[in-house]
Design brief:
Blueprint lengths: L7 E4 L3 E7 L2 H6 L7 E3 L2 H10 L4 E5 L1 H12 L3 E4 L6 H12 L3 E2 L11 E7 L5 E6 L13 H6 L2 E5 L6 H16 L3 E5 L3 H6 L1 H11 L2 E5 H8 L4 H8 L5 E5 L5 E5 L2 E5 L13 H14 L4 H16 L16
Parallel strand pairs: 1-5, 1-9, 2-7, 3-8, 5-6, 9-10, 10-11, 11-12
Antiparallel strand pairs: 2-4, 7-8, 12-13, 13-14
């Protein structure tokens, strides 16, 4: 892939997703908090993995899912993330490249194993995630490719990666490189619990380094410690160039230059699995944005991509998303 034609570069956790159907009782028995993501160590990861039913293994991570969605829409995407030179690291690299995403990150030769996320999907379509971050959190400034950042229209940062000091440095360096090249920087807040851990530094990051902010209703309320969505919406205006706020079945709200665009969700016959809905909405929006489309059209494409992903198990499209845009 020609680096001069990269629409979006994602920087985030390189994780192998293991997705399995489970009953509520199994989630409770494993000590997991239903509907959320929790961080676990290697020993707990092995215990839960051993107890899970049959699962699907594929490259995952929030930003990686977004890049795969952009590729499925016909855009050009690249991903930067840290894996180990082990079996799961090989699975991650092969899978994301097979999805049409450029991935050239060098694997670590020592240290923690490749990260994995154990995703339990209950009958109500809620997903409960237990994540061993392993090698992923060791991503640092030296893992960045300045030339790639300089040629990507948008560099998209995954909030989940903000936990580690070296990753913070990498994010700030990536933002500096992107802006020096006249490019845009996007951030997804990722999870309300992630926001709770890093509220002050997230606020500073958004104010000083981010052009496009992606957040769901809970995340934006948490970021500004607001009473409700409208209060949070008012608080974020002016803090970045474009704020893209998703609200599940209520659709999404896009704020830019004092304007507010309301975008309806795309209904599906049955919600099977909400894993990756926000990631694929971001993919659709960023695809439209890098094609120069009006912001409401970007949101519409995001809604189409999110609808496809919640109609089946897993966080990667089962249909070529570009075929859904006609």
């Amino acid at each position: 892939m020609d680096s001069s034609k990269i629409d979006v570069l994602g920087i985030g956790n390189a994780i192998v997703d293991v997705i399995s159907a489970a009953e509520d009782g199994f989630v409770d028995a494993q000590g997991m908090n239903k509907g959320t993501m929790s961080l676990i160590d290697g020993a707990v990861a092995e215990r839960i993995y051993g107890a899970m039913g049959p699962g699907r293994e594929m490259s995952g991570g929030s930003a990686a899912n977004t890049m795969a969605g952009i590729a499925s829409l016909g855009g050009s995407g690249a991903f930067t993330g840290k894996v180990r030179n082990d079996q799961l690291g090989g699975i991650f690299a092969h899978d994301i490249r097979a999805a049409g995403v450029r991935f050239e990150s060098r694997p670590a030769t020592d240290g923690p194993a490749t990260a994995r996320c154990l995703v339990l999907v209950t009958p109500d379509a809620q997903r409960t995630m237990a994540t061993f971050l392993g090698a992923a959190v060791n991503l640092g400034p030296d893992d960045l490719d300045p030339a790639l950042i300089g040629t990507a229209q948008v560099t998209y940062l995954e909030g989940y990666l903000w936990d580690a000091a070296a990753a913070k440095e990498a994010f700030l360096k990536a933002a500096e490189l992107a802006h020096a090249a006249g490019r845009k920087v996007a951030l997804t807040l990722s999870d309300p619990f992630c926001v709770d851990r890093h509220r002050d530094s997230f606020l500073e990051l958004v104010r000083d380094h981010v052009d496009l902010l992606f957040a769901n209703e809970d995340e934006i309320i948490s970021l500004y410690q607001a009473e409700d969505f409208e209060a949070a919406r008012a608080a974020v205006e002016g803090h970045c160039e474009v704020a893209i706020l998703t609200r599940s079945e209520k659709g999404s709200v896009i704020l830019a230059n004092g304007a507010r665009h309301e975008v309806s969700c795309v209904p599906v016959p049955q919600v099977v699995d909400t894993t990756g809905a926000g990631d694929l909405y971001a993919a659709g929006f960023l695809y439209g944005y890098t094609q120069g489309l009006p912001l409401p059209d970007c949101g519409r494409i995001g809604a189409i991509a999110a609808a496809e992903i919640i109609s089946h198990l897993g966080a990667r499209p089962e249909k070529k998303l570009s075929t859904l845009l006609t």
